[in-house]
Amino acid sequence: MLTIANRTFQSRLLLGTGKYPSFEVQKEAVAVSETEILTFAVRRMNIFEASQPNFLEQLDLTKYTLLPNTAGASTAEEAVRIAKLAKASGLCDMIKVEIIGDKRTLLPDPIETLKASEMLLEEGFIVLPYTSDDVVLAKRLEDLGVHAVMPGASPIGSGKGIINPLNLAFIIEQSNVPVIVDAGIGSPRDVAYAMELGADGVLLNTAVSGAKDPIKMAKAVKYALEAGRLGYEAGRIEEKDYAVASSPTTGMVGT
Amino acid sequence: MKFQLNGKQVELPEVVDSVGELLAHYQLQSRIAVVEVNKEIVMKEEYETKRLFNGDIVEIIHFVGGG
Q1: Which of the two ends of chain B, N or C, has the fewest CB atoms closer than 10 A to its terminal CB?
Q2: Could you tell me which NCBIfam families the record lists for this protein (chain B) (predicted)?
Q3: Does the beta carbon of B34 lie under 8 angstroms from any beta carbon of chain A?
Q4: Domains (ranges, CATH) in chain B?
Q5: Which neighbouring-strand residues pair with B34?
C-alpha cells in the first residue's frame, strides 16, 4: 500500500499518459498495469480544429487519481499558474511539480522547484515535486512539507535507468515522506531495482507507452514492481567479494 | 467581439459576451476544460455571469497525455 498525504493506494505504480500508439492500447495498458494514479499535462485546447478524442474524458474518473504535472513551466510562477488551472477542473488537488531548467537534458531546476513547492503548499495542494537525485534538495523539500519526493532515475524519456543508485538509496534512507522514483526508467529491471532500493513507488511513462507491445510491458512493470518490493521486504543477502559455498563443506564423498 | 483566444486573434458574433456563450459557440460545454480570462481563472459557477469584453485574453485549457 502506498500512502500519499491522506490517500492510500493498492498499487505503487504511477503511470504517465503520453505518447501511446492509440487510445485502445493505452486503455488496455492502464488496465493491466493496475495503476491508480495517472499523470497528465495541462495544455491549450485545440478549439480551432475538429474535436479530437481526449483520453481523460474516456476514463472512469472514479477509479483513478489524477496527477497533473506542470510540464512546460520554467519558473515557479508558471508552475503555480498551471497547477491552479488543473485544480480548477475540480478533478484533482495533487500536483506534480515539474520545472525544467535545461532544455537538452530536461533536468529539473532545483531552485524554482523548491520555490514552487513552497507556494503550492501554501495554496493547499498535495505537492509531489519531480527533482534531481540530490540528497540535500530532497531533504529541503521534505522540510517544506511536500507530500512525496520524486527523484529522477535518469533524464526524462532516456530509458537509461537508475544511474545513481547510491544517491537514491540515501534519499530513501533519510526520507519520512514517500519516495517515488520518476523519469528515466527503461525496463522492468529498473523498476525492480528502484523498489529493491526501498522506493515507495515508481512513476514511468515512455517505458510502457514506447515499448513495442505497451500492454505486455505494462504487465511486466507491474510484476517487476511487486517482485522488487517483495525482495526489499524480504531483506536481501549481503554482497561479498568471494565465493561462499552453498553446499556442506564436510562429508565429501570419497575422502 | 474581438478576443485573443488560445493565442489567436478571433472575431466572434456580438452575442458571445460571456464565458458560457463562448463555450457554447465552440460546442465545448460538455468537455472537461478550464477557462482563464486575463489570467484569472473563471470557475464553472461563473460561466454564465462572467462577461467578456473586446480585447480580453482568454485561455481554454484541458488535460492531455503527459508523464
Answers
A1: N
A2: thiS
A3: yes
A4: 2-62 (3.10.20.30)
A5: B61
Please judge whether B62 and A205 are an interchain contact, meaning their C-beta atoms are less than 8 angstroms apart: no
**Which residues does chain A have within 8 Å of residue B31's beta carbon, measured at their own beta carbons?**
45, 54, 57
- Look up cell 492531455; give the residue: B64
> What's the first-to-final CA gap in chain B, in angstroms?
38
Q: For chain A, what percentages of helix, strand and coil (3-state, to nearest 5) are there?
A: 35, 20, 45
For chain A, the residue count is 255
Q: pLDDT tens string for chain A (255 positions)?
A: 999 999 999 999 999 999 999 999 999 999 999 999 999 999 999 998 877 788 888 888 899 999 999 999 999 999 999 999 999 999 999 999 999 999 999 999 999 999 999 999 999 999 999 999 999 999 999 999 999 999 999 999 999 999 999 999 999 999 999 999 999 999 999 999 999 999 999 999 999 999 999 999 999 999 999 999 999 999 999 999 999 999 998 999 986
